[in-house]
Amino acid sequence: MSTGGSAFVNFIDVQKTYDGETLVVKNLNLAIQRGEFLTLLGPSGSGKTTTLMMLAGFEVPTHGRIELDGQAINNLAPHKRDIGMVFQNYALFPHMTVEENLAFPLSVRKLAKAEIEQKIDRALAMVQLSQMRKRRPAQLSGGQQQRVALARALVFDPKLVLMDEPLGALDKQLREHMQIEIKHIHQNLGVTVVYVTHDQGEALTMSDRVAVFSDGEIQQLASPADLYERPQNSFVAQFIGENNRLTGVVTELGNGHCSVRVGDVGEIRALPVKIGTSGQKTTLSLRPERVRINPAIGACANVFDARVEELIYMGDHTRARVHVLGSSNFIVKVPNSEGMPDLAPGSAIRIGWRPEDCRALDAF
């Protein structure tokens, strides 16, 4: 992850430890462009929230340098960084009305009363809460409170907005609605956003780029499509979306493809992505929607006999769990666009896939 001189935010060789021994963040180099929506994604303890807190100024790097708009901010107090912040718990003042909550960061900056009113009006219109300005947080729904928190983070026109799991307390339907709302607000304002979540669907929906964290390091930094379609290691392949995983040994490598022996049951042609030489172990990654049932002759280089173990109707597709290549947990997603597939538990089928849809990665 290279830094860039023109980047709006730069992490340069940043480390963080709390006990002097274990690095929570390891040698982080990350460049964030002006106007970008970047998501820090990873499981609990991966270092994503610590990274956000160092950028906000609530944590101090043990080593390295953080720059914002060309200036080092390691020793700059949080309130002097001109950063808006949105938390999962909203952090609204319960005794203040909506407009008073929004006025607070403006009053601290000693803006004129007329300008404060103008900025509050604009922020409330942006989150569609103009009619709620006299209510207190307790009189609002969770989604409305989160909109107020977002408006408060944006009302003073900050250089940068940081969001720490802001939708985690909302139910699924409202969370998905707010994802699109935040995405549209970002597109309209062009503000730079750094967003933290452990929800990979949320990251794929909202982001320009996603940095996947594990064990204090970025495993891959890419667009949502690249992360899903072209994972660079086994951790990313497993963490982003559903994935079939097969382990084997490389038997042949060349001409842009490789052959992998899976136990004593099959030889698979695959795309070599992160493997060594012939004879080394590898993990094969294959998305369930890339697998075809009873493929036409010649359509797939990899074709195997399988047995249907379980069928689960999912609305737009049927999720078939099949036994193949010694695994009874191999998943195939069958679209229901042309009606329910003619399958039944226990039935024998053939499944196949193209070599370019099967990625040979590091042994996981």
Architecture overview:
By secondary structure, the chain is an alpha+beta fold. 23% of the residues lie in helices and 36% in strands. It has 8 helices and 20 strands. It has helices spanning 48-56, 98-108, 113-126, 142-154, 172-189, 200-206, 224-229, 234-239; strands at 9-17, 23-32, 37-41, 63-68, 71-72, 83-87, 160-164, 192-197, 209-214, 217-222, 244-254, 257-262, 266-272, 281-286, 292-293, 302-313, 317-324, 327-335, 348-353, 358-361. It has a 6-stranded mixed beta sheet, with helices on both faces. A hairpin with a 2-residue loop joins strand 17 (317-324) and strand 18 (327-335). Helix 2 packs across helix 3 (113-126). It is globular. The model has no long low-confidence stretch (mean pLDDT 92).
Helix content estimate = 10-25%
Shape: globular
| SS elements, strand count | 20
The helix count comes to: 8
Biggest beta sheet attributes: 6 strands, mixed
Describe how the helices and strands are arranged:
Layout: E1 9-17, E2 23-32, E3 37-41, H1 48-56, E4 63-68, E5 71-72, E6 83-87, H2 98-108, H3 113-126, H4 142-154, E7 160-164, H5 172-189, E8 192-197, H6 200-206, E9 209-214, E10 217-222, H7 224-229, H8 234-239, E11 244-254, E12 257-262, E13 266-272, E14 281-286, E15 292-293, E16 302-313, E17 317-324, E18 327-335, E19 348-353, E20 358-361
Parallel strand pairs: 3-8, 3-9, 6-7, 7-8, 13-20
Antiparallel strand pairs: 1-2, 1-4, 4-5, 9-10, 11-12, 11-14, 12-13, 14-20, 15-19, 16-17, 16-19, 17-18
Helix pairs in contact: 2-3, 2-4, 3-4
